[in-house]
Each structure stands twice: as structure tokens, then as C-alpha cells.
Amino acid sequence: MKRLLLLIACAMLAACATPSTPRPGSNPLFTDRHTADPAPLVVGDTLYLYVGHDMARGDEMFNIVEWLAYSTRDMKTWTAHGPIMKPTDFKWASRDAWASQVIEKDGTFYFYTTVEHDQTRPGKAIGVAVSDSPTGPFVDARGSALVSNDMTPQGPHTWDDIDPTVFIDDDATAWLMWGNANFYYARLKPNMIELDGPILQAELPKYEEGPWVHKRGELYYLTYASRDKSVSEDELISYATAPAITGPWNYRGEISGPAENSFTIHPGIVEFKGNWYFFYHNGVLTVGDQGGALGRRAVAVEHMYYNDDGTIVPITHTAAGVSIPREN
Ligand code: CA
Fold this sequence. Notes:
CATH architecture: 5 Propeller
Bound molecules: calcium ion
Number of strands: 20
CATH topology: Tachylectin-2, Chain A
Helix content: under 10%
CATH superfamily: Glycosyl hydrolase domain, family 43
Distance between the termini: 49 Å
Radius of gyration: 20 Å
Structural class: mainly beta
Mean pLDDT: 94
């Protein structure tokens, strides 16, 4: 009888319910801290994920204090490797661990990232750091910014030089692409830490920020955060395709977004063990007394699919994420 009463009481009180443990692979991926701007990298049988550590408090807009690395072999269970670097590890930078990407070349890992430059070159800048390990420690490869705000004076504000993505083409030429409001790109020297030629610019419909380049078959994909301010302040994810890394880029439409409770969204796309994944962030996670917000985001991942013609199937943001099997 006591047991029956308890069951009835519990049926009436949600608080009696057994705390549900998120299924491995469900979203957000990490629930003990706030993370933003996910950048995946595959090395052998392991997928590494680089994120910024969001530490905004109250109504503070952004306070991203360091970059963290995680890894997984099955997309379900993740290992936290802790901080790999903080902005002031670049001696010329002052703050702001904004969006980054790591790529490997000849066994060296190159970490391209956004920081606030010191007052000698005010504005956001792109630095590059190197390590022999995907989990660092990473050290500044140059002792100076790879790209600083003054190198793109055509930009409309001081934070146009953000969100680097790097791609090594089939001919081993590496390209750096970046930008807020304007989309910039430049060839890198074989040493990966110097520009090799002028900074170029391409026009992309509704381009805002957060470019991410990948290749599938013969087609190059440029995915980015897009925004039509006449419709909404929220960013969506759009993409374009091209027959070469240098374009011309053919706009293919919107595939995702907006993120829940965050006007920013940031794509990270990768093939891992034969399957494609789309990483992004939203603002739904509460940690302790800090609810999700623009400056307290949480990274997430979804299965990604292509149509037979190579176009990307629009992506729905889910709580289940990759905890559920892929569709065939
Ligand atoms: Ca600039």
C-alpha cells in the first residue's frame, strides 16, 4: 500500500521522477560548461572538436576566455582535454577567444583563431599557433598576427577580420578564408604561417560571418552564417558550391538555423568514418545559476545528408542529435 501511494504521489510530482541522464550523443554535447563556435578535425580514428569557452555573466554580451579541445571515437562519448590556449598566449593579443579551426599538415597541427589585438593594431585579428599534438599545447607560430584589421581597410568596422577557416587543396595549396560582413580569402605559403599573395574578396548572398570550407567528390562547399536584417536579426546557415576553391561560388540556399536563444550560429562540417556531421551552437544550456544566452552558448551536432545532386539536405536542430541512428 505504501508503495502504491508513493507511485501515485510520484505520478503527481515531477520531482519524484528519476533524473534522466542524457543519452550519449544527444545535444548539447557538453553540459558542464558553455561552449561556442565548434570546429571539428578528424585525425585517424578520432574526431577532435575545438570550441571557445563562453564565460559571460548576467547580461554581458560575450566573454570567451580560452579554447577547449574535446575528442571522440564514436560520436557518443567525449573526452575533455581542457584548455589548449588562451588569447594572451599570443603576446600581441589582449582578449577574446573567438572562433577557430585546427588543421593538420605533415604531422603538425595549425591552430588558426580570432583574438582582439592590442592597441598597436586595434580590432580583431587572426593568429596562428602550432603543436605536435591535436590537444596542444599550442604556441604562437609568428609572434605577430597573421591578419590584422588594418590589412583589410575596406571592412566596415573593427571586427571584420574574424572566423578563420583553412583548407588544403588537392594540389597541397592552402587557403585561409575569413571575415565578418566581408568574405576574405588568401593563399598561404607552404609554411602555413604566412600569406602568399594578396587578400581577395568574394561576394556571397546575405554573407555575415563564420565561413567553413569542405570538399565532397569534385565539389567545394562554402558554408557560412547568413543574415537578412530586413527579415530578422537571427543568423541562418547558407552555403554555396564551386568547381574550385577560388570559386566562382554558386549560392545554393539555406540549410539551417536560426539557433535557439542565440542570434549567432556557426557551422562546422566534417566527414568521420564515412558519415557527415554538422556542428553548430545554440543558447539553451543552463549551468549552475547561469542560463543559456548569447554569451553562454552550447555546441551541438546533427547528422548531415546530401541529395543525389550534391546539395545538402536542410538540417533540423534536435535534442536527440546523433544519439539516434542515421537515416539510410
Ligand atoms: Ca579590417
